[in-house]
Amino acid sequence: MSDFDEILYLLNKQGWAVSDTAVPGAWHASLREQAQRLWDAGEFSGGEIGRGANDGRQPAVRGDAICWVEPDSALAQHPFFEWMARLRQALNDSYDMGLRRHEFHFARYDDGAGYKKHVDQHRGTNYRKISIVFYLNADWDTTKGGELCLYNPYDPDVELQRFAPLGGRLAVFVSGYMPHEVLPSRATRWSLTGWMRTDDLIRA
Ligand SMILES: O=C(O)CCC(=O)C(=O)O
Ligand SMILES: [Fe+2]
User: Looking at the domain 5-197, which fold is it?
Assistant: First the structure.
């Protein structure tokens, strides 16, 4: 059994996996500290959607602020990213996915913010293959909304399941396949969100 067997099995079977135990240690706490530090330093900016002329920043659609993890930063040495590299290798070994790199940003949803239903591949591109969300909210109050809501890929009006953004919880899903949404959050909601890609570019 590798650390990743359950994730690999569920991804193949249903297109998504959510685990509270897959990511070891208390990494969500140290990553949250890093996110807070970057927020305090003014390093976050508004999240954008899509790539087209009418896309860009639309807070009513996507309400988070984000801060990319720079590949050459000290932060990129956090063991979470080495663990991600091993998950990426396991996906390639099992499913021959040709994943070449991953990119991650911190996301902070302010009180009232959410992200309307979407899939994670931009129109006309399909480099983002696997989406990852690692939640950084210790002691999350589940009455505050902010759930990740997954929908049926064949009938996106049908909700499959929703998940509170509990610290240490990992959500993994097939980027171009799973419709999903962040329900409006009534508390500040922190996460580390990323994609595994089949190209060499970042942030395209
Ligand atoms: O934070 C989440 O639960 C999902 C975020 C998301 O869908 C995205 O950033 O594309
Ligand atoms: Fe998304």
Answer: Jelly Rolls (2.60.120)
